[in-house]
Amino acid sequence: MLYTLPMEKASKTKSVKQYDFGPLAELHSHLGASVNPRVLWEIAHDKGIKLPKRDYHEFADFVLLSTERKMHLNDYFKEVYHPILDPLTSGTHAVEQATYQTISGGYRTNGIVLMELRNNLIKHAGGINYDLDHVAMAMLRGMERALLAYQGLSAGLIFCMAREFDIELNTHIVNKAIKYHKRGVVGIDVAGPGNSEFHFKDYTHLFDRARAAGLGVTVHAGEQKDADDMWEALEFAQPSRIGHGIRCAYDVALMKELVKRDVVLEVCPLSNIATKAVEGIDEMRHILRTLIENKVKFCINTDWPEIIEGCHLQQQFVFLVENDLMSEEEIRHCNKVGFEASFVPRRGGLEAYL
Ligand SMILES: [Zn+2]
Question: Is the separation of the CB atoms in 173 and 159 below 8 Å?
Answer without folding.
Answer: yes
